[in-house]
Amino acid sequence: MKTPISSLGKVAFVDHLTANTQANGDDAAIISRGATLELIAPMIYLEGIHFDLIYVPLKHLGYKAVVRALSNIYAMNGKPEYITVAIGLSARFAIEDAQEIYAGINAAAKNYNIQVIAGDTTASITGLAISITAIGKVAPKKITRRNTAKPTDLICLSGKLGAAYMGLKILEREKRALEGNSGVQPQLTGYEHILEKQLRPEAPLAVVNALAQAKIIPTAMIDITAGLNSAVLNLCHRSNVGARVMIDRLAIDSQMSKVAKELNLDPLVAILNGGDDYQLLFTVPANLHKEVEIFADIIGYITEPEEGANLITPDGNMATLSSPDFAAVNND
Amino acid sequence: MKTPISSLGKVAFVDHLTANTQANGDDAAIISRGATLELIAPMIYLEGIHFDLIYVPLKHLGYKAVVRALSNIYAMNGKPEYITVAIGLSARFAIEDAQEIYAGINAAAKNYNIQVIAGDTTASITGLAISITAIGKVAPKKITRRNTAKPTDLICLSGKLGAAYMGLKILEREKRALEGNSGVQPQLTGYEHILEKQLRPEAPLAVVNALAQAKIIPTAMIDITAGLNSAVLNLCHRSNVGARVMIDRLAIDSQMSKVAKELNLDPLVAILNGGDDYQLLFTVPANLHKEVEIFADIIGYITEPEEGANLITPDGNMATLSSPDFAAVNND
Asked: What is the pTM (predicted TM-score) of this model?
């Protein structure tokens, strides 16, 4: 009898798989290099799971793959320096298509001032696969990990969430409308902001710079790629703490919320269980309240582990935070 | 009008794609770290292209993926220290299947004394995708690259080629025999050696150790993953030299040659255009002839670029070396 992977959440599954390895459960692996720490973060990006080539321009895809990879280095408070790229291309791709992907990769490399130092390119019979490993550095006293949040720490968020998810919903709607109607043009006007957040997001460099300028080293940090809940639960799980997140502290992206109404969706679902935000969630000691709120939103605080991870609704009720990534972990 | 990727050979295509990057055309990227060089080699391994799950046990697959990745570090005369792993798993996989892959990865890590320091695991709707990035080190005076072979250098080979390719041919034959005949057992007895070379190859650590012990630093080195021709042409292309490879100097694996006869195949094709050998091709100055032949086969020598890359047949005739990886490069 075999056990379906879906019976475990992603986090428990990965913990289980990597139990006999030296993987640390963080955004990036850490290697000591003299006075500095080297950070290495692998990332695999697959057609059909992470992107749909029907509506993602290849150049944007290359750009976004780099953003996804760099995001893991920024989450450790690090500075990315290099990426390696491995791509599997199916036969329907032409040389010009592969060049478009690389144009996006090179544009992101230029914007974030990193070097593309190695590439493996191969055929694929299944679909497009892009694997990017980001390599960066951080001073030992500056590194931020997932497992070091402490009760009473403030929970801070680097930006608004949910726009990328809502952009995806618009793209999916237009894809359905086009199916079997080759003459129809997609209706994308008026959705530019949320579409840009979905198709060509930026990595959270600004908040890492703001932290450095304010001379603040978070007690813990994690990137938000699968919604707020998954990030909070991950931090709580790794740090063995609980959390309270106040819903009325979550800043709402106005176009996101407008489109949510149009699509009859709950904007809170986009924030809590959406994805592709590439913002950072971090914790700081409570006395840094004023310094942090200049460049980040304080959305809650860390509690003792027994309290679990909870949402506080505007009327003061408490609801357990949940995420498919934590199907099993969250039940213990 | 778009240009099919097949109109360029793999090497010209990758050169073209990475023209605006800092990729060096070597087996691994090189980063300077104080007194030592760090080597980083990405590798992507895809179902349907690189392996067929019908006949590859998952544990062996994990092992072989690590061997493929480490091979790139050994080819630079380096010592691998770490790997990162990113896996895309389709829904048909159970937790036990993923554990089998990781058991193979961990077994290889143990054998080659490396650490598995990070993992990204995701769903896949297409097929199994494994991306492993190997990280290693080498002293600056010991590093071997692809672009530094010199005319009159001897061309040396770390072991016999073609057995893995012939193992694949047996597996393919048995797969065809089984199709539509679920009661039939595959006939694999007597083929153990070539099957092991295909399913559970080892990385070329022995030759790197032998070079160190003999205090020989090759003038250039490359790993052989797609047959001898591809490796020789790659070395010639990067080093801007020609080559003469003497066919009668190529050691023949006896089981490989026996099975070639059984399957009506030319054993030379397996050696020249097979794959999955994970041996190293390297060049040394001609005066090291005696020292090298203790642990490697001397199969030819480097020439001026005008002479091109050629095979010398036992009767003294010359034939141009060719490989699909060099469809275009070889024509100039």
From this structure: 0.91
Instruction: For residue A61, give the CATH number of its domain.
Output: 3.30.1330.10
Contacts 24+ apart (CB under 8 A), B287-290: B288/B154, B288/B216, B289/B154
Domain containing residue B238: 154-331
**Residue in B222, B230, B199, B213 with CA at minimum distance from that of residue B279:** B222
What's the pLDDT tens digit per position in A128-175?
A: 889 999 999 999 999 999 999 999 999 999 999 999 999 999 999 988
> Count of domains in chain A?
2
Contact state of B118 with A31 under an 8 Å Cβ cutoff: no
- Collapsing DSSP to helix, strand or coil, B197 comes out as helix
ipTM above 0.90, yes or no: no
Cα–Cα distance for residue pair A45/B323, rounded to 1 Å: 30
B95 and B226 Cβ atoms separated by less than 8 Å: no
Q: Biggest alpha carbon distance in chain B?
A: 61
- Please give the residue that has the higher pLDDT: either B125 or B281: B281
**Domain finish residue from A112, A138, A164:** A138
Same domain, yes or no: B36 and B119: yes
Residue B301 DSSP symbol: E
Size of interface A-B (CB pairs under 8 A): 234
Question: Quick check: A133 and B84 CB within 8 A?
Answer: yes
Contact of B86 with chain A, judged by CB distance below 8 Å, is answered with: yes
- Facing residue for B21 by CB, picked from A10, A24, A119: A119
Is A63 within the bounds of a domain? yes
CB contact under 8 A, B24 and A87: no
Q: Give the residue on B whose Cα is nearest the Cα of A49.
A: B124
Task: Pick from A30, A70, A81, A131 the residue to mutate for testing the B interface (most B CBs within 10 Å).
Answer: A131
Selected residues 245-304 of chain A with any CB under 8 Å from a CB in chain B: none
pLDDT 10s digits, B247-258: 999 999 999 999
Whether B124 and B209 map to the same domain: the answer is no
Q: Which residues of A12-25 are buried (b: 16+ CB within 10 A; e: fewer)?
A: bbbbebbeebebbb
